[in-house]
Amino acid sequence: MRHTTYAPALALLLAACGGGGGSAGTGTTPPAPPAGTGARLDAYVGTWASSCAAHAIDTAVIARAPGSSTALTIAVTTTYYGNTACTGDVIATQTWSAPATATYGGTVSSSVVPTAGAAPQAASVDKVTAQLPQRSVTLTGTYVSHKIVDAQPNWCIDYAGSTVCVPDRLYPAENAPFDGLAILGNDLVEVKSNGTNYDAVERFTKR
User: Fold this and answer.
1) What's the CA gap between 45 and 36, in Å, rounded?
2) pTM (two decimals)
3) Domain tally for the chain?
4) What's the pLDDT score for residue 21?
């Protein structure tokens, strides 16, 4: 769910990946909850935090979408730290003007590859169509400045002799880079179908 631009490449939620539930191997599909209840989505509601990656931790607040029994909203805030262990002083906080939505599309028994090269783990995957709306980004913090880079406005984080910038523009609506949600142990995992099973996109622990 990470949709930051701390590294040169746009990550996770900003990635231009297709949405919609892809095929998930040959496992038996368990019965879905009755239409209109969206009962399986309740397991994902709450506040979740990612592990530290490139100075940053994502916090995802997941809620039932207003007026829908089969959709979730996913609002992500990214907190940047001055060191790679994500401890000590917070140097910047990134927020988006609108959350992503994930609409339930059925459940499959499959497996999830938690990291590249790792053994797949059996999982019940809730397929979703995940969408990012048209949105803007804002960064705040002592180490944040607003600059013109290549004739375009940017939010920039300046610290330790380096600068990392996020374009300050209107981002178009697009598919999110995951097409399923699963619970592995006590963790929430956003997953993407690879045609055989699912690859983990980002993993969160409940707060």
Assistant:
1) 17
2) 0.81
3) 1
4) 32
